[in-house]
User: Which sequence fits this backbone?
């Protein structure tokens, strides 16, 4: 029962899909707890959907439904708008109009923030209306709040993160069951972990959007999508997992965020080799994890479900509770505080790493010396080599790991090696993360 002694906070819920329905159901489920903990009465006043006639596992009260998100903006009683419609066009308009109308925004939309966060946070700063976005990164893991609040006194030195559950499931299955990328993706789709159109996930962009948000919060300037490096998982073969295992590693879609001595920020998302002994190597299935190094706190690790109805709605509700308390007590923040301490993104070709490179070659004399000759000419030194006896789809494989080298130099080497007559297909090259920085 509503408590008339508590301040009522009215919520406009835009989107009643996977996450929106979960938010509504869990707000109802734990209403008493939230009332006591926030000292407010949170009431959903409108729910926006595209198709009100659609059958739904969680039924919204019919009287709350509308197909016009502008109803939320136009209702003077609505204090907070929760954007869970997804996409970057109408969602942008909705968030912009909400801020202009003085209504606090809660969103889980990483694509929107990654692509248009700069404009939206500028508007939030101008209007003094905050945007909360805990659900946009790593689902149920409270990493936004951690960076913004718990680590406010730290300079973030680096983050290494597994941020996409679909890709992590696919890579875990390729590694543990030895199945192909296509089979693992099909499994993920059958289990409901991957969308019918999995492109945003498997291209690496979903994780890259989240990494961009984490880096922007950590370093105080909104990073442009063109300054992040992204590689997806679809080119990996089961043999890469076998070779990685021989080298004492496994392969994860890893997002790496770090700052160098010149305060240049590097943001990359790509399949990378990790030592099997490192704790991130045992983050399997649909789970996410974020390892943060701060200059005061040292190394910390966060682990949990990175997507799904309940974990994601847990984060949305946390934002709603913060917003309700802020409204009741008059405290506000805009969600992103720009500062000038770190100025620019590091040019991608200057970032350095050790590499794994697998080269399909013809079975003929002199191959090894031709390939190592290219590496030697470019000053790339080899750390280890594997030459399996068996052939793969008719080609022999040469597998090397290198010492640390600039990415631009490695790219040059891959181009030159690809052009050798003895090379029978496109080399696969992956970063090897030592996890020491
Ligand atoms: N799913 C996750 O695990 C997860 C995790 C973290 C973040 N997120 C983010 O949360 C957001 C929502 O994801 P979701 O999985 O809940 O999506 P979803 O299941 O596709 O739900 C989208 C909802 O928005 C409604 N909608 C879409 N466009 C609309 C429009 N133009 N006007 C009115 N209503 C509209 C849909 O209406 P109908 O119901 O009538 O179709 C549906 O209720 C996305 O930004 C996503 O990236 C999702």
Assistant:
């Amino acid at each position: 029962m509503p408590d008339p002694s508590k301040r009522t906070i009215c919520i406009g819920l835009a989107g009643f899909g996977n996450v929106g329905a979960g938010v509504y159901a869990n707000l109802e489920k734990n209403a008493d707890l939230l009332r006591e903990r926030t000292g407010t009465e949170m009431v959903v006043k409108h729910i926006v959907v595209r198709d009100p006639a659609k059958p739904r596992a969680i039924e919204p009260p019919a009287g709350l439904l509308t197909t016009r998100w502008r109803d939320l903006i136009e209702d003077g009683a609505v204090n907070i708008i929760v954007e869970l419609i997804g996409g970057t066009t109408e969602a942008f308009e909705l968030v912009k109009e909400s801020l202009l109308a003085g209504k606090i925004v809660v969103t889980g939309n990483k694509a929107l923030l990654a692509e248009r966060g700069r404009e939206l946070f500028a508007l939030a700063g101008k209007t003094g209306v905050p945007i909360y976005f805990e659900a946009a990164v790593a689902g149920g893991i409270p990493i936004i709040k951690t960076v913004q609040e718990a680590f406010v006194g730290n300079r973030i030195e680096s983050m290494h993160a597994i941020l996409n559950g679909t890709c992590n499931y696919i890579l875990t299955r390729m590694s543990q069951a030895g199945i192909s990328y296509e089979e693992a993706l099909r499994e993920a789709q059958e289990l409901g972990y991957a969308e019918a159109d999995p492109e945003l996930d498997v291209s690496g962009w979903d994780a890259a959007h989240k990494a961009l948000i984490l880096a922007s919060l950590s370093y105080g300037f909104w990073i442009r999508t063109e300054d992040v490096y992204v590689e997806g998982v679809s080119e990996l073969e089961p043999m890469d997992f076998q070779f990685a295992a021989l080298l004492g590693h496994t392969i994860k879609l890893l997002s790496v965020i770090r700052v160098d001595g010149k305060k240049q920020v590097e943001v990359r998302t790509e399949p990378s080799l990790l030592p099997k002994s490192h704790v991130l190597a045992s983050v399997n299935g649909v789970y996410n994890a974020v390892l943060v190094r701060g200059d005061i706190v040292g190394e910390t690790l966060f682990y949990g479900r990175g997507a799904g109805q309940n974990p994601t709605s847990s984060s949305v509700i946390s934002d709603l509770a913060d917003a309700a308390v802020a409204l009741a007590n008059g405290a506000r923040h805009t969600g992103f505080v720009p500062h000038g301490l770190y100025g620019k993104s590091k040019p991608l070709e200057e970032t350095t790493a050790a590499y794994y490179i697998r080269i399909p070659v013809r079975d003929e004399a002199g191959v090894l010396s031709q390939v190592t000759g290219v590496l030697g000419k470019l000053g790339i030194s080899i750390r280890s080599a594997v030459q399996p006896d068996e052939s793969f789809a008719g080609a022999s494989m040469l597998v090397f790991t290198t010492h640390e080298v600039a990415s631009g130099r490695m790219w040059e080497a891959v181009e030159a090696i690809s052009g050798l007559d003895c090379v029978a297909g496109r080399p696969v090259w992956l970063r090897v993360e030592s996890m020491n920085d």
